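Work Package 3 (structural annotation) set out to generate three-dimensional models for the target panel prioritized at the project kickoff. During this period the team completed the workflow that converts sequence records into discrete structure tokens, so that structures can be stored uniformly alongside our sequence database. As a representative example, we reproduce one entry of 288 residues exactly as it appears in the project archive.
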Amino acid sequence: MFLTVCKLLSYVYHGRKILKHKKIHLVDGHWAHFGGVVAFILAKILSVKFIVTVYGTEPSLIFFKKYIELATDGVLTISNYTRSKLSRSAMVIYPLVDPNLFYPGKVSRSRKPYQISTLGFIRKRKGFDDLIKAFSLVARECSESSLVIGGGGDARVLKEIGRALGVENKVLFKDYIPDEELVEFYRACDIFVLPSIEEGFGLVVAEAMACGKPVVVSDGGALPEVVGDCGIVVPRHNAEILGITLIQLLLDEKKRIKLGEAARKRAIALFSPEKIIPRLESLYSAFA
């Protein structure tokens, strides 16, 4: 606790040092926890408006809900799902995905064997355990298929699940993927999947969509909102349905192409800079 307070004060001190000679009219505290508290204190010191951007999966969001309601001049959320956890007064602005950075292109590998990919730091809510179980069904039908889990984290439990199901040699774990390698990571897969228990948005799904990839997601949190009717939504915690869905999609190239094309169009229509930046500037101007 003492170290946390010291860290908080240090961030506030250095933040004030950086901002005191700049013309600041508004502070947007991203994430409704530690960083948001630092931003709130800075806003009060500088006597400017304070808003907070809530992502929906913050630790202790219920605890911070009262702080969000009382201490802010406005609340932004990254999805309608996240907004539903707070209040009707919160405004929704989706995260930005640049289609000029994330776009379809040639891949360095052969189109076979089939590759299914997912991306995210390993934690329970990502549902990667369910994905490996689902992939064990895929491997029976599509023996040359592989599963790539990128993002890093402690993979020991997941590797044990893979060993128990006999697919340990078909599941590849990659550590953190640098920004400059993300596009190639998405392009290399035939299907991108995210079976999370809950997501406040699911940026990796939107990025894969912009790359023209067919996406399969769970019904966890905002994921159905992100993909709309341009992806496939399956029940969370249901490895069997997920596995069957992946098998059917792998064996139907025409459907994969159709879904990938529709996914990119949706990503451009909803998440592109031309869509997001004017809305964000307008909201910031209104608060300031």
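The chain has two domains: 2-94+272-287, 115-271.
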